[in-house]
Amino acid sequence: MSVVFRHPPNGHELMPHPTTQNESQHRTEARIWVELGLLALMWGSTFLLMKVAVPSVPAFTMSGVRGLLAAAILWIAMRATRRDTKRSNESWVPPVVLGTLSGWLPNVLTAWALLRLDSSAAGILSAAAPIFVVILAHFFLASERISGIQAGGVVIGLGGVALIIGVTPASFGGQDLAGQLAMITVALSYAAGTVYARMIGPQDAPRLAMRQQLVAGVVAVTVALVLEQPWNVEPEPIAIAGIIGLAIWASAIPIWLYFRMLGHTRAVTVSLIAYLIPAVAVVLGALVLGEKLDPSAAVGLLVVLVGVFITTRQRSSSATPSVSAAGIEPDDAGVSPRGD
User: Fold this and answer.
1) Backbone phi, then psi, for 6, in 5-degree steps?
2) In the 8-state DSSP scheme, what is residue 100?
3) Residue 73 and residue 210: Cα distance in Å, rounded?
4) Residues 199, 142: contact at Cβ < 8 Å?
5) Per-residue buried b or exposed e for 217-229, using 16+ beta carbons within 10 Å of the residue's own CB
6) 41 in a structural domain
7) Total number of domains in the chain
8) DSSP bridge pairs for 6
């Protein structure tokens, strides 16, 4: 570390001034916020990219192409960084489970929901995932029982979800409600994937992410071959661009960046992504697709985020970086390596 010397008032000695250390810390903090912003932008744009693709590409076909392309990109990245030179004896059970809970299942449900919802509405409902993480963790993780304050946060968060949906007797049977329930299932699926990832303990994170995408792609393509006859699909150019964007911009790159951040950043800081993703989805939906945000949905989103804050703040006080260069343990807010 270099130092700056100042002449003391008495002129007897020189005292070091650690300005370089402070500048380095500021640069590190700035880099973290840039990375966090990029991660939010990439994952938050998922709903926009899927919205432009779903009219001409069936759900399983889209999910399959996206998963296989993302897996190929992650494998190339592993080769480039020499991470695949060692043989791995790790079980394929975690990739299969996560490839379902955080891969093809939420991808397909999101595509189906976006035929019925605006991209901003889908993004807003995804904000409920951390609430479901807290609920599931209470039952499956002995060290994460819900406290009284957290239970209050869960109630608030679920109230916000109900406000977003605006369930009334007239809404039952409508396409909007069906799409909203599908997105709630998506949030629940991602939450289950997060809790499962905590249960399995340390893993080789990049390899797990690559295998997760591979499983998601293989399963989705298999179903697509049976149900959707993808050889007859005639995607529009914008749909092709959307799927490529989903695989690269919204899957492979953010997953890699996510693991990289958890290697050098407090999990609590990375957990802020749970607050940013729905906001990005709303902004992109308004700017690019001209979508308008329903006032009750906007209020509901704020209520959900308040619930997320209450349910996660207690654990955040003792959180530490949860992923090393070769390990994974998703952070406190319920954001895990996603297929979206």
Assistant:
1) -120, 145
2) I
3) 8
4) no
5) bbbbbebbeeebe
6) no
7) 1
8) 15
More confident residue, 108 or 298: 108
* Start-to-end CA span in the chain (Å): 42
> 23-31: long-range contacts at Cβ-Cβ below 8 A with a sequence spacing of 24 or more?
none
Say if 28 falls within a structural domain. no
CA gap 256, 36 in Å, rounded: 13
Q: Is the dihedral of CA 315, 318, 321, 323 positive or negative?
A: negative
At 95, the amino acid letter reads: P
Reported confidence tier of residue 292, pLDDT bands at 50, 70, 90: confident
CA distances from 257 to 10, 196, 252, 330 (A): 51, 21, 9, 14
Q: Which two tokens stand for residue 1?
A: 């570390």
The predicted-structure confidence for 152-208, as pLDDT tens digits, reads as follows: 989 998 898 888 887 554 544 455 888 999 999 999 999 999 899 888 877 888 889
Q: Which domain holds residue 122?
A: 52-316
pTM: 0.82
Residue 72 and residue 301: Cα distance in Å, rounded?
36
**How would you classify the pairing of strands 15-17 and 4-6?**
antiparallel
Calculate helix-pair angle for 253-264, 59-80, nearest 10 degrees: 50
Distance CA(230)–CA(234), nearest Å, equals: 9
Residue 322 has pLDDT above 80, yes or no: no
Nearest to 202 by CA among 114, 325, 307, 41: 325
Q: What is the secondary structure of 215-263 as a DSSP string?
A: HHHHHHHHHHHHHT-GGG----HHHHHHHHHHHIIIIIHHHHHHHHHHH
Q: Is residue 229 one of the residues assigned to a domain?
A: yes
For residue 295, being part of any structural domain is answered with: yes
Reading the block at residue 167, the tokens are 């369930």
Token reading at 73 = 């990109």
Place of tokens 């998601």: 216
Rounded to a whole number of angstroms, the CA Rg of the chain reads 22
For residues 336 and 194, is the Cβ–Cβ distance under 8 A?
yes
Answer for the pair 73, 269: CB distance below 8 angstroms, yes or no: no
